[in-house]
Amino acid sequence: METNVIEQVFGKDVFNDDVMQAKLPKDVYKSWKKTLESGADLDLDIANVVAHAMKEWALEHGATHYTHWFQPLTGVTAEKHDSFLSPASNSKPVLEFSGKELIKGEPDASSFPSGGLRATFEARGYTAWDCTSPAFLQEDAAGVTLCIPTAFCSYTGEALDKKTPLLRSMEAISKQAVRIMKLFGYDDVKKVACSVGPEQEYFLVDRDKYLQRKDLIFSGRTLFGAPAPKGQELDDHYFGAIKERVASFMKDLNEELWKLGILSKTQHNEVAPAQHEMAPIFTTANISTDHNQLVMEIMKKVAKRHNLECLLHEKPFAGVNGSGKHNNWSIVTDTGINLLDPGKNPHTNTKFLLFLAAVIKAVDENAELLRLSASNPGNDHRLGANEAPPAIISIFLGEQLEDIIEQIVKGDVSSSIQGSKLDTGVHVLPVLKKDATDRNRTSPFAFTGNKFEFRMLGSSMSIAGANFTLNSIVADVLQDFADELEAADNFDTAVKELIKKTVTEHQKVIFNGDGYSDEWIAEAEKRGLPNVKSMVEAVPYLTKEKTVKLFERQNVLTKAELESRAEINYETYSKTINIEAKTMIDMAGKQYIPAVIEYVTSLADSINSVTAACAAADVSVQTELLTKCSSLLAAAQKALLHLEDVTEEAATKEEGQEQATFFKDVVFAAMNELRAPIDELEMIVDQDFWPVPTYGDLLFEV
What InterPro entries does the record point to (predicted)? Predict the structure, then answer.
C-alpha cells in the first residue's frame, strides 16, 4: 500500500523523540528524558553525546552548518550560522559539534533591541539551548542548516528575547496549578502545561504587482488606495472554493510545515478577498510559539516560489477585513486532564469552576496587560473596527456557564443547561447534536468548550507575549488561591466560598452580547472596564507598580526587563510610523503627484486642441475634470508639505512616550490628510496614467 504523503514527510526534518531514541545509547536517552521531565540542568557529558548524535543525524541529511535559532525583541527570528568544520586538521576537513556548542552560543547582544539593558559597547550576549523544543533542519539556497531553538539573554542575565519570559511563565503556572491539584487529591500530577493553538490569517497577492508598490515593500500595508468596485460585501470569498494558484501554494506550504513536525490542520479562504487562514493542532506553548514563527517564515518563502507575496500585516488594505491570529489557550496536566474542560455537568465540577474563577479574576484585574500583549502598530487599525474584537477586554462564557455563574452568585447551584438536538427539517439529513452554548466572534476572550480563545492578536505578532502574559496573570491568582486553600480548616467549604467570592467580585468582565455595539461601549464604561484604544496608551501599564509586583512575584520579568520592553514598544511604534510617513512622502512626491500632473496636462492639451479645432465645441467635461483634478492636486501637495514638516518635527521629540504620542496624534493624522486627495484622484485619473497597481489589481488578480 502506498504511503500517504503526510506519513512520508511528517517530522522528517526534526530531531524528535523517536530520532533521539534511535540514535542515543539507552542509558543516555533515559538520563536525557529524566532531565527533561525534572527540569534539572543538563549534564555536559550527556550534552556531548546528544550533540554528537544530533550532528551525525544532521550530516546524514546534508547539513553543513548549525545555528542557534532565537527570537529577539524584534518580533522575528535571528540566526548566526557556523559550519561543522573544526580546526583540528589542515589536510582534510574534520567535522565536530560539542555539547558546549549545543548548549551555548554567543551572538552580539548590542545589535538587538534591549531597551537600555545593554549599552552599544557592551556586545556580549548568550543563546541557551531550549531542550524542550526539538532541533530541526532548514533547507534553502545556503544549503541545509541544523537549527537549535534557544533562549537569548544578556551577559548580565536579563532576557533579551520573547522565549525566556514564556518559559519562565510556563514554570510559574505549572507550579501553582500543581499546588491546586494536590489540594483536590491529584498527587500524581507533577506538571501542568499550557497548550496553545494559534490560527494564522494572511493575504496572498501577485508578486509582480507587489514589487510595484513601495508601501507594501517598506511597510507591509498599502498607505494609499481607493476601494475596488467589489470588496467583501457579498460574503462569497469566505470558505469559498480555493483558486488553483492558491491551492498549489497551500499544498507546498503544508508539506514544508509537516516536514518540520508542524501540525498544519485547517486551511480555508477568509472573509476578505485574497485572504486565507491556516490553523494547527494544539501543542505546548513554547513549541507552538516556535512553530508559529516558522509558519510565518515559511509562508513567505513558499509564496515566492509561486510568484506570490504573503502579507502578514494586520491591515494591508483599507476597507476590507484585516488579519488576526486567534490564540487558543488551555492548561493540561501531565496525566492528561484538561483543567478547562467543564465536563457534562459543570455546575458540580468544582475543580473546573475554581480554575474558571481564576481566569475570570486574572483577566478582570489585568485587562490592560492583555490589551498590550495584543498591541502593535498594525493591530491599532483592527481593534474596535467592527472586524476584530473591541479594544475593551471582556470574557464570553456562553449561555451554559453564564447561567452557572449567576447560580453561584445567588448561592443556589443546582443545574447545568444541556445541549439539545438540532433538527434541520430535512429527513435525509441526520439530527445533529446541538451544543449548550453558541459562539461569539465579537468577544476578545471567549470560552469555546474546553479552552479560551484570545482573539485580539495581530497576524504578524509572536504569540509569546500573549501567552506569557496569560500564564503569569493566571499563575498569580492561583498562587493566592493555593495559599488561602492550604490554610483552610475545611477545604470543601473554603473552595466553594472562594469560587463564589471570586465570581461575584469579577462578574463585571463577563459579557455575552455584541461587542461591536455602541451600547456595549457605554455599558463597559459603567462597569468600570478599561478601554485602551491604542498601543501607545497601553504601554505605560507595563511598568505600573502592580505589574512589576506581579511579574517579579512569578519570576517572569524583572522591573528592569519590563522597563526595557516599554522602551522598545515606544521605539517600535515611532519607527514604524516614521517609515510609513517617509514612504508616503516618497510615493506622493515621486509617483502620484507627477502622474496626476501628466494627466491634467493631457486634459489641458485636449481642451486646447478641441477648442482650436472647433470654438463652439462643448469642453465642459474636460474642464470640470481639469478643475477638480487640479484642486485635488493642490490639496495633495499641501498635505505632502505638511507631512514632511511634522515628520521632521517628530525627530526632535524626546524618544519614548513623548515621541510615540506625537507620531500617533500628529504624524498619523497628517498621513491620512495626504492619503485622502490621492485616493480620490485614483477614482478620476485614467488608469493608463496611474503609477501603481490598484486594490482591484491586487485583491482580485491572483
Answer: Gln-synt_C, Gln_synt_N, Gln_synth/guanido_kin_cat_dom, Gln_synth_cat_dom, Gln_synth_gly_rich_site, GS_Type-3, GSIII_N
Backbone torsion region of residue 253, taken as left when φ is above 0, otherwise alpha when ψ lies between -120 and 50, otherwise beta: alpha
The three grid cell numbers given for residue 372, joined into one nine-digit string: 498590550
Task: Using alpha carbons, select from 469, 485, 628 the residue that is nearest to residue 541.
Answer: 469
DSSP string, 335-387: TS-BTT---S-GGG-HHHHHHHHHHHHHHHHTHHHHHHHT--TTGGGTTTSSS
Question: Are the C-beta atoms of 684 and 592 separated by less than 8 Å?
Answer: no
Buried-state track 612-632, b at ≥16 Cβ within 10 A, e below 16 = eeeeeeebeebeebbeebeeb
Answer whether 583's CB lies under 8 Å from 218's CB.
yes
- At residue 688, the 3 state secondary structure works out as coil
- Distance, in Å, from the CA atom of 105 to the CA atom of 289, rounded to the nearest integer, reads 21
Dist CA 686 CA 702 (whole Å): 23
Contact 204, 246 (CB under 8 A): yes
CB atoms inside a 10 Å sphere around CB 220? 18
- Confidence label for 445 from pLDDT (cuts 50, 70 and 90): very high
Give the separation between CA 97 and CA 88, rounded to whole angstroms. Answer: 12
Residue partners of 361: CB distance under 8 A and separation at least 6? 477, 502, 505, 506
Cell triple for residue 636? 495633495
DSSP for residue 591: I
Q: Where are the alpha helices (DSSP H) in 158-307?
A: 163-183, 207-210, 214-219, 244-259, 285-305
Give, in degrees to the nearest 5, the angle at Cα 362 between 361 and 366: 115
Residue type, 418: Q
The pLDDT tens digits of the residues spanning 505-553 come to: 999 999 988 888 889 899 999 999 999 999 999 999 999 999 999 999 9
Residue type, 21: Q
pLDDT tens digits along 252-305: 999 999 999 999 999 999 999 999 999 999 999 999 999 999 999 999 999 999
The vertex-385 CA angle with 381 and 386, nearest 5°, equals 145
Output the CA–CA distances (angstroms, integers) from residue 216 to 312, 316, 606, 643, 681, in the order listed. Answer: 11, 8, 35, 19, 20
- Give the separation between CA 144 and CA 138, rounded to whole angstroms: 6
Dump the DSSP string for 96-152.
---HHHHHEE--BGGGS--TTSS-TT--BEEEEE-TTS--EEEEETTEEEEEEEEEE
Rounded to 5 degrees, what are φ and ψ at 477?
-70, -45
Q: 198-212, 444-458, 656-670: lowest mean pLDDT where?
A: 444-458
Distance, CA of 687 to CA of 226 (rounded, Å): 13
What is the phi/psi pair of residue 364, to 5°?
-65, -40
Question: Residue holding cell 513601495?
Answer: 214
Q: Nearest CA to 291 among 259, 322, 269? A: 259
492583555: which residue's cell?
370
- Pull the grid cell for residue 605: 492639451
